[in-house]
């Protein structure tokens, strides 16, 4: 009797914590099946940045972008069919965002212990993502980034909350987004950032992007 009571108590606690957390990672994984066609299984993106990396991105940011694709405030023609209301509900957006945010990609090739089989090695190597170094003046990039971008995107470029992670993202994708902001083709809710970007020379942007590729590996 006591055991049954304990068991049902456990179930009740589980049910409660589930409704509090309200994310279903299995569902997120299932939804990711449709995203993987373009963004790859581990959310690494592809085609040298035509498809951005979405793994390890900030939850709130992923949610906000999916909602703006759905509302068509941020135009994304390839993704349009996948983000329509009947395809992707608010609940689904929560689940897929949490799932993607939880994918950790390494910035170093794994060191094998020696006893792994070929498949295990392959799976370990697949979780590595290193953006090729971009050319630019790293010192200038660092100076501008730390002064003008770090307040929102974080000192190490990992983002926080609604501010996206920039480090570990394809350089060509980031450059394309800067161009879209500058042309006014991608809406930015805070006028401040478009103003900031406008005040920079193209070379400064290049230097910032180069700097971001240089800080992928945490200093030991
Ligand atoms: C047919 C290809 C395709 C599919 C399928 C697709 N995407 Fe995308 N996605 C893109 C492209 C292309 C972009 C970049 C658009 C741009 O350059 O502005 C993008 C951008 C994004 C972004 C914005 C990234 C950022 O840093 O701002 C998120 C988040 C995203 N996709 C999530 C998803 C999720 C979740 C799914 C599955 C439900 C999905 N995508 C399915 C092609 C696709
Ligand atoms: C006041 C806060 C703030 C500052 C400062 C700021 N940003 Fe942003 N940035 C944002 C927000 C918010 C977004 C996401 C906006 C949206 O929803 O499209 C963003 C998005 C971006 C993106 C697109 C990322 C993606 O995954 O699509 C790039 C690139 C970017 N910022 C570069 C910069 C650079 C470079 C600087 C410094 C010169 C900078 N930002 C300074 C708030 C800021």
Which helices and strands, and how do they pair?
Layout: H1 2-21, H2 25-39, H3 59-70, H4 90-101, H5 118-126, H6 138-153, H7 171-183, H8 191-198, H9 202-214
The structure holds heme C (2 copies).
Regions with little confidence, pLDDT below 50 for 5+ residues: none
Approximate strand percentage? under 5%
User: What portion of residues is helical?
Assistant: 40-55%
Total of helices? 9
Q: What CATH architecture of the largest domain would you give?
A: Orthogonal Bundle
Classify the fold: give the CATH topology of the largest domain. Cytochrome Bc1 Complex, Chain D, domain 2
* Terminal residue distance: 55 Å
Order of helices and strands: HHHHHHHHH
Largest sheet: none
Question: Which molecules are bound besides the chains?
Answer: heme C
Overall tally of structural domains: 2
Mean pLDDT across the residues is: 89
What is the molecular shape?
globular
Counting helices, strands and paired strands, the structural category is mainly alpha
Question: Tally of extended strands?
Answer: 0
The CATH superfamily name of the largest domain is Cytochrome c-like domain
- CATH class placement of the largest domain: Mainly Alpha
Report a brief summary of the structure:
The chain has 220 residues and is an all-alpha fold. The protein contains nine helices and no strands. The termini are far apart.
């Amino acid at each position: 009797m006591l055991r049954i009571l304990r068991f049902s108590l456990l179930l009740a606690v589980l049910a409660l914590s589930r409704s509090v957390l309200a994310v279903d990672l299995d569902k997120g994984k299932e939804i990711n099946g449709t995203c993987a066609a373009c963004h790859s299984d581990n959310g690494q993106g592809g085609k040298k940045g035509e498809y951005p990396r979405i793994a390890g991105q900030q939850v709130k940011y992923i949610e906000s972008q999916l909602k703006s694709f759905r509302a068509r405030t941020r135009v994304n023609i390839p993704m349009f069919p996948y983000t329509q209301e009947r395809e992707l509900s608010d609940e689904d957006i929560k689940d897929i965002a949490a799932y993607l945010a939880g994918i950790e990609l390494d910035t170093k090739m794994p060191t094998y212990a020696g006893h792994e089989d070929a498949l295990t090695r392959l799976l370990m190597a697949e979780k590595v993502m290193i953006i090729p170094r971009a050319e630019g003046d790293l010192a200038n990039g660092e100076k501008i980034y730390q002064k003008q971008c770090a307040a929102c995107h974080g000192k190490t470029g990992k983002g926080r909350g609604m501010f996206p992670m920039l480090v570990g993202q394809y350089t060509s994708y980031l450059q394309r987004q800067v161009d879209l902001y500058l042309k006014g083709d991608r809406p930015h809710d805070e006028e401040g950032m478009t103003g900031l970007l406008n005040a920079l020379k193209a070379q400064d942007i290049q230097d910032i992007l180069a700097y971001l590729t240089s800080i992928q590996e945490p200093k030991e």
